Amino acid sequence: MARPEPGAAVYVEDLPVPTPGEGEVRVRIARAAICGTDRHIFHWDPSVAPMLSPPVVIGHEFCGHIDALGPGVEGWQEGDYVSAEMHLVCGRCRACRSGNRHVCEHTRIAGLHRDGAFAEYVVVPAANLVRLDPAVVPPHIGAFLDALGNAVHTVQAASSIAGRHVLLSGYGAIGAMAAAVVEFEGAASLTITEVAPGHLERARAWAAARADSATPIRVLDPGRGGLVEEVRATTDGGVDVVLEMSGAPAAINSGLELLYPAGEMVLLGIPSRPDLLVEDFSRRIIFKGLTLRGVVGRRMFATWEEMLGLLARGLDLEHIVTHRLPLRDFHRGVALLDAAEAHKVVLDPAQTD
Q1: Is the per-residue pLDDT at 1 higher than 70?
Q2: Where are the alpha helices (DSSP H) in 210-301?
Q3: What dotted CATH number matches 158-294?
Q4: Domain at 24-148+298-348, CATH class
């Protein structure tokens, strides 16, 4: 099959119901959610195109109920409510053997390298399943635990959050989740920067709804100027932690400028160009004694346990779900995300309108 052109990379087709193999289960999808990666696939962006060999069912954020067990599967039964870690790791490389499976040298991702969750059924290894409590994780939240894991991993990659001044740059869906975790964990203050009008408006609405929080929340548009002066004036000279979710060079550089000496920058956002230029490198990083940490994926399965614990303790993510659509309206969901008019678009295979 020829590789699709940009803008024509996703189409709808009837496929046979998949059969689970040895050590696998089949899950009937209750809800799925659109990830930024799915948007890149839809547009056949160069960043993801080499990773796929079409045809493949995309989608890697979902929850559902086990529908069938493959040979050799133990500890699970039909009807169990689950999600799954969709990074499939080798278990043999140095990273896996040292407890760092989230950076496995040979990672394959369901929804990119093999069929994923934008369908009525998905087959996954039983070892990758995560059991969910329906009283704690309703399906519209269970649909995007993969992305929540990225947010939780980013926040918890800092040495601590409680009692510290935090700057979060980029209030897309994962940024919004990370902001909720930062506030929930009791930061001394939270400053959010965002340039997209839709995301900026949602950030301000969320901050207004949390006006009684013990964590003061400020939302700033860096394009209006005066960012460095304003943040320093409200954080006793600078922030302790920067959570960089945007990948924008300007945001990275301003974050480095705003970090107080011995501060930390945790980077999840991916810059659009490989040769990111850090301005005044020595003064901003070396002479300030900063710590920089990159984050990818979720720690398997420690991050899953952490985020399910946060939800059980009352972490509120209802505001993250801005749209609920039938699965067949995937194209509309991508358009909403492209226009920054949505955070999480949750898809329901059973929904008809």
Answers
A1: no
A2: 227-234, 249-258, 281
A3: 3.40.50.720
A4: alpha beta
| 40 catalytically annotated | yes
Tokens of 260: 């107080």
In 10 A of CB 41, how many CB atoms?
25
Query: Letter for the amino acid at 346?
Result: V
Q: Please report the pLDDT score of residue 180 as a whole number.
A: 98
**CA–CA distance, 169 with 251 (Å, rounded to integer):** 6
DSSP β-bridge partners for residue 344: 321
pLDDT per position as a tens digit, 81-121: 999 999 999 999 999 999 999 999 999 999 999 999 999 99
pTM, two decimals, is 0.93
Domain boundaries for CATH 3.90.180.10 within the chain: 24-148+298-348
Q: For residue 54, is pLDDT > 90?
A: no
CA distance 79 to 28: 9
Active-site entry in 19, 40, 113, 319: 40
Q: Which two tokens stand for residue 79?
A: 């009807």
256-273 pLDDT, tens digit per residue, is 999 999 999 999 998 877
**37, 154, 191, 235: which is the annotated catalytic residue?**
37
Helix runs in the chain, H state only: 36-42, 94-97, 139-142, 145-156, 173-184, 197-209, 227-234, 249-258, 281, 302-313, 330-338
189 vs 161: CA distance, rounded Å: 10
> Is 107 a catalytic site residue?
no
User: For residue 64, what is the enclosing H or E element?
Assistant: strand 61-69
